Amino acid sequence: MNSEQLEKYTSAITLSDMEIFVFPELMYSLVLANIMSPIIWQWRHLDCFKKLQGKSSYRKLMRLRQFIMDEFEFNLDLETWGLTSKAKELKRFEKSISPGDIAKSNALFGYHGDKYYFDVDIRRHFGLDKYDSDIIPYWKTETVEAMNAFRLKEGYRTAAGECVSLATLYAAAAFIVCEIPLEDIYMILTPLHSQNFFDIQDGVLTNNRRLVTKTMWFNGTAISNKAQRALRNENVTILAHSSGYVHCLYKDATIDKKLYQDFGKKLDSYLSAELSLSIFANFLRSNQNYQKLFQVCRECHGQAQFLKAEVLFHYEHSSNFRVADKTFDKLLAEVSDEDFVPYQLPGRIRCDELEEFIEKQNPDLRITKGKTAFRKFIEQVIPEAQRFVDELADFIHIEARLPASDKNFLPAEPIEISVEQSREQIIDYLQQVRQSNPTAELAFYSYRDMESCNWLPFVKAAVERNPVSVQMAEAMSVEEIYAWLGQMKNASIYDGRRLAQPDEVANYKTGDGLEKAFLLANVIRERNPEQDVEIITDKNQVILKGQSEYRFVSTKGLEKRISSCANGKTIVSD
What we know:
alpha+beta; 3 domains; three-stranded mixed sheet; 29 helices; 16% strand
């Protein structure tokens, strides 16, 4: 491998936020690694999913949402995988992308977002504000194995992962458990978030552990408003799909051009709603300061009665019924008679008259004519009527800031696996196409398949980008570290001939003997870069040679000799 190839392949091992931004094909490689993993396939046999056999993909997806919410936490501990420096990361990728472009698109390198993010102090919200010097965290994405292993980490009750990890988990699980074809799954990355769009029914978006249907997107609740933050306020940096990707900065795109255009239309449809009284009520739910400008009218024994809109929304808080939907009459029945008055309230628009206007005029708030008609209807009552109309228009239509369509579309060989295939058949297929499909090839590195992959990227990652193990062992001598490793459970978080990195062993306090040897080698090389270190693994026996010799027991059955030399050269031989 040349130096650029080596960076890409070793990035497939460590999968930091920065690495995925520079090498966008890695996003889908991780999805494929999770699809190859036995963990998600085991979910199919759980009772909660077995009883849904024969049901629609949508039903299964809704059940998957609850399962992920129960079994996974959203992890926002930015230092889980240790610290690095801006200078070091920028130096690594200077041939691929400029520091200025990185700063515009990456939260760890100065990105602050638009006015909305300044207003909410988003860097402080995510804990990024304390990284105001050269030191920054590795913001890494986890495989499903590493997510599951959080159960072993102190302070965690369940599995866990950050937003990119959860997005790739959802994509793989939607394919395996819900039988949603990969062609219907689109991965959307922004500088501060990662989510998926499932092209089923009217569309479904993932948002960390949750799912958001189109109806939920426009319901005006606090949770839905938070789910909108990324697409409403950020540029989309990467769109990844089984057929390829498009990147905001790169001129070449590997996704099919027509497919990309069709996706834009589907997302636009999901992010747009027709104006109705129900949607208008959702707008008022989201913008409580406007509720005082409206009133609800009902008929009681032939007499009109009126109710302040904000009072009705207050009742909604403790009710199973909602304003202006099919349960509206039941909600009105819960309102105390004392809250109604027999006269029209001054300075408020009647919602029944608003509904009549909407049904007759059908104003399109995406065009000037529609906005003007709506403004004229409300301006006698509502101050700053134009601002009100603009905010309502913004509520019912969000325009996603996708990468420009003027790319050089150079379609790659798509990943063509079917929901009817078994795990073994999928792995066989990916093995067959990996020579012609870089995403499939890199997937085996993310999968950590040490039987079929070049070991050099794994070794480079192990001794260069695993600071947690170095920090944990800081106060120990090498002999004490060896004893510490000996006390750990001798079990890998990865099955078969797949290997964990040193920081996964350190964080989860468990590892195969070969993985422990890499951890010890990482610490030795960090303390004394001029010292030669050699690891010899002969099936069940592992020997680490430095100034002294250290022995470990392995169940991986791998046979290799790895030499990390003082001159920086690494040699791997059988």
